[in-house]
Amino acid sequence: MTDAVIFDRDGVLAEFDLQGAHRELSGLLPFGLEQLGAHLRDWAPRAQAIVDAASERVFWDSFWAHLCQAHGLDEGVRGQLCRFEPRRTLRAFADARPALEQARRHGYRVGVLSNFTLLDLPGSLEALGLGELVDAALSAAVIGAAKPRPEAYQAMARALGVAPEACLFVDDRPECVEGARQVGMRAWLLDRKGKSTEKNRLRGLGELFDVSRERP
């Protein structure tokens, strides 16, 4: 029996608009998004973890200050970078809201479990217009464990007040799907590009409730 449906965010409910981010940042930074990503990966382990909206603001303001100092960028640029809202670069897939609404109509609890640690997860879901459809949202930073570690799935099930065996899980990474199965969840791989040979896969979220009665 299914009591809850758990979705990954990135690649499942939403994706980053990298072109939009490039348009906003290209006139401010002396390098592109690839190098910006490298700076973020270097900075993030040394920074305060993002566990809510306030810590997200502290993280990004500190990161931009560090970056500007390292590259000799002036206060005007730093001010503009601090006004950049990374969550605005997220775009919900067209099938995301209908899938969440359908889960609610079935009477399922709805969770979002994400390994992405650079944004406040509940705040990002609100920005996407999906927040009111989600009962619990947990990131790896909040849990202290990332998928596919069992602790991540178990924490999500506890937050939803259900047993792992009563959860249906959807992710776009095969190892995360397998991790969910290892704790007893029914799990499906979302393969939007049609490249996987996984038997139990979905091409879109619209297929989820057509196949959810079968056990992967």
Write the layout of secondary structure elements.
Elements: E1 4-7, E2 14-16, H1 18-25, H2 33-43, H3 53-71, H4 75-83, E3 90-92, H5 96-105, E4 109-114, H6 121-127, E5 136-139, H7 140-143, H8 150-160, E6 167-171, H9 174-182, E7 186-190, E8 201-202, H10 208-211
Parallel strand pairs: 1-4, 1-6, 4-5, 6-7, 7-8
Antiparallel strand pairs: 2-3
Q: What sequence of helices (H) and strands (E) makes up the elements?
A: EEHHHHEHEHEHHEHEEH
How many helices in DSSP terms? Answer: 10
Give the biggest sheet.
6 strands, parallel
The strands making up the biggest β-sheet line up spatially as: 5-4-1-6-7-8
Q: Helix/strand/pairing class, anyone?
A: alpha/beta
Mean pLDDT: 94
In short:
The chain is α/β, with parallel strands linked by helices and 216 residues long. The protein has helices at 18-25, 33-43, 53-71, 75-83, 96-105, 121-127, 140-143, 150-160, 174-182, 208-211, and strands spanning 4-7, 14-16, 90-92, 109-114, 136-139, 167-171, 186-190, 201-202.
Overview of the structural elements:
With 216 residues, the chain is α/β, with parallel strands linked by helices. The chain is 43% helix and 15% strand. The protein has ten helices and eight strands. Helix 6 links the parallel strand 4 (109-114) and strand 5 (136-139). The mean pLDDT is 94.
